[in-house]
Amino acid sequence: MSSPINNSILIVDDIPTNIKVLFDLLNQAGFRVSVAKNGQSALAKAKEALPNLILLDVMMPGIDGFETCRQLKANPKTKDIPVIFMTARTDTVDKVKGLQLGAVDYITKPIQHEEVLARINVHLELRRTQLRLAQEEKMSSLGQLVAGIAHEINNPVNFVYGNLIHAQNYITDLLNLIKLYEDHTINAIPEIQKFSQEIELEFIKKDLPHLLSSLAMGTERVEKIVRSLRLFSRLEDAEFQLFNIHEGIDSTLIILSHRLKAAPTRPIINVIKEYGDIPLVECYAGKLNQVFMNLLSNAIDALEEAVINAEITHELTIWIRTAVTDDKKSILVEIADNGVGIPPEVQQTIFEQFFTTKPLGKGTGLGLAIAHEIIVEKHNGTLQVKSTPGEGAQFLITIPIQQVSDEC
User: Fold this and answer.
1) Secondary structure of 130-156 in the HEC alphabet?
2) Edge-to-edge strands of the sheet including 330-337?
3) H or E segment at 272?
4) Three-state SS for 389?
5) What are the helix (H) ranges across 185-263?
6) Do β-strands 330-337 and 281-283 pair in parallel, antiparallel, or remain unpaired?
7) With CB atoms 3.0 to 4.6 Å apart as the test, which of 98, 139, 244, 349 could cross-link to 103 if both were Cys?
């Protein structure tokens, strides 16, 4: 479970005494607490701050708790925030009504401190688990989809690639045969001469070898993409294995290649790879690919948003650097961009669950939190961010070359 300080709670109550009791209790427990004294204020604050949980009084002047809850659940931006009702009433009908409106629980007044904290922690953990499962299911589905596509493409590509060699040999033989006919035929039949001119035989003889060479290069390119797709799809590795970090990064770039190309709203995003001489790393290959996907996707998002907001006009670039650390025990992966950077206050909370600076529908606030967990908890490594506003952002990963135990 993440620490309470990573979670914000909105208290909605019109009685100052109740607010003070809850504020002191939650503040002492380490939660970030905000307050609203009526339903209208609660709707505005919830939409702006997106707290992790809302404690909502049922009986309030103006918009009561039930109507406030209904509007919260009707708003796409706030509909997933857990709501716990607070009430002095014990009427079952009211409780059922609240649950039907989307509340997750009830707390009965007068407030019992231990009960409040227990219920809050339970529902925050349930919400975290729900989002993590959704994220893992998303990545697992992506892996299965990618693996399925790679499998379906692989067979016909191999068929084409295998037969291209024979086609090249056959066509070379046919061109040699035509040359023999031309060399040993003094007066060609007019009909043959006419047809040769119509099909531009001289051009065909020169262009056909180039055409076959282009087909072979294209097929090799598809085969490389298929290998990258199959490598990226290794999301269910159950144990540590030796892994080529460069192959993992390259496979992720293949998946994201369409996002790097020029778009109507922005120029091309250049990727500069400065790979060092690093050994194979003992790790969960698929999990590391997930980290690379999150960090590179975030870098692309940051550059796109900066261009749209006219914050940068220079050439868009992402740098990827790898090296062995000075102590020779770990490898270092650096992923940097030349966007607008990350403010210091954001850097302090960027790896917290639910924290996101992306607009509604573009982020869950889990990508970097999961990446941090994969690197730190599953691989005993480190994940840090360095940024100066206006000068881009830099994410630094260190991963031990060898794991000291089989434990995650």
Assistant:
1) HHHHHHHHHHHHHHHHHHHHHHHHHHH
2) 269-274, 316-324, 330-337, 393-400, 382-387
3) strand 269-274
4) coil
5) 190-198, 201-232, 245-255, 257-260
6) unpaired
7) 98
Judge contact between 226 and 157, C-beta under 8 A. Answer: yes
With CA atoms as reference, report the closest residue to 86 among 51, 114, 112, 52.
112
Only one residue has tokens 């089989």, namely 406
How many residues are given for the chain? Answer: 408
Q: Tokens 């001119």 identify what position?
A: 197
The secondary structure of the chain in percent helix, strand, coil, rounded to multiples of 5, reads 50, 15, 30
Give me the residue label for tokens 């953990």: 125
Q: What is the pLDDT of residues 215-268, one digit of tens each?
A: 888 887 787 777 766 666 654 556 788 999 999 899 889 888 888 998 888 899
Four-residue CA torsion sign, 137, 380, 123, 61? negative
Residue 300 — pLDDT band, cuts 50, 70, 90? very high
Token pair of 79, please?
């509909």
Regarding pTM above 0.70, the answer is: no
**Number of Cβ atoms within 10 Å of the Cβ of 111:** 14
Nearest residue to 316 via CA among 338, 340, 342, 293 = 338
For 71, other C-beta atoms within 10 Å of its C-beta total: 19
Greatest CA separation found in the chain? 112
Whether cis (ω within 30° of 0) applies to the bond prior to 400 is no
Two tokens at 126? 């349930």
